[in-house]
Amino acid sequence: MIKQTQRLRGGRLNFAEIAGLAAVVARNDGRLSFVSDAARRLLGRQGRAPQSWNDSILSIADAGALAALCRRVRQGGQDETQVVTVPGDGRRLEARLHALAGGKNEVLVLFADITQQIRLNADLLRLRADNQAWAAELQHRVRNVLHVLSAMMYLEGAPGGGDDAAFDLVRGRILAMAQAHDTLEVRDGIAMVDLVACIRSLHALVCSGLGLEPNVLSLRLELDDVPLAPSIDVAVPIALIVYEVFSAAAKAAADGVECEIDVSIRRLNERVRLSISGLCIARDCLNLRLVEALARQLRAQFASDLCGRMTLDFSP
């Protein structure tokens, strides 16, 4: 378009008339040597074509700013953009300034009314903020429901109320899901979980559940420099898997077996590897069936051995 403009300047600048563009050609002294019909209707006073920036409907400040910008564009040869406001109705106009080659200190300025675009952008920002608040409130309510369920399980599993071990097992898993919700924050409407904080919370949960001091079942975390914050859909199954491993280790520690859990989180291109070692991952101390089912839900690669190492490769 600009090359065409350069060819058609000097009395033959009729491309703007054909395309219906709001275009003007401005000189260094602020006078306008060409004004298209669309520009006349957009910038003119009482429908007449302005002869200079100060003769347009723009404010004195915006007219002066455009005149100064035209001089800078002509001297530097670099295209620039300026947004101005139409006094009275508050419309916003975007002015794109282009230096004309061999144009005797002239600059082509194309105008576009961006008022509606600005309003749409403001509406989108407001909608995003509303979605952010709605998502945060939803996650807050889910967390509260999980805690209520845990409390109900505790009451049902009280002495004389049934099989305490079975109730404790289910209640612990509910609390593990609640821990994931406790460490989340909403980003652009998506609930993201601080995985490291969640793992630390799960370690404290299993220790307190069996009355263990944290040093009895020590936890050592090895992490990449970049913090990991998966979505809540990914974090909940991971929290349940980590809880199962920690629970098995805590039971062994409660029986007098010295345990130290090493947790490593590493990024592998598009995936993340969670490695846990330091306990005997055998079928008699860990519910591998549940862990494998959760890994399939994540579409993750899961591996374990009897030498105390478990790896989980997943997409965050």
TrEMBL record:
SUPFAM superfamilies: PYP-like sensor domain (PAS domain). It is an enzyme of class 2 (transferase). Its EC number is 2.7.13.3. Residues 137-211 form the Signal transduction histidine kinase HWE region domain. It catalyses: ATP + protein L-histidine = ADP + protein N-phospho-L-histidine. InterPro entries: PAS-like_dom_sf, Sig_transdc_His_kin_sub2_dim/P, Sig_transdc_His_kinase_HWE. Keywords: ATP-binding, Kinase, Nucleotide-binding, Phosphoprotein, Transferase. It comes from the Bacteria. This is histidine kinase. It comes from Magnetospirillum sulfuroxidans.
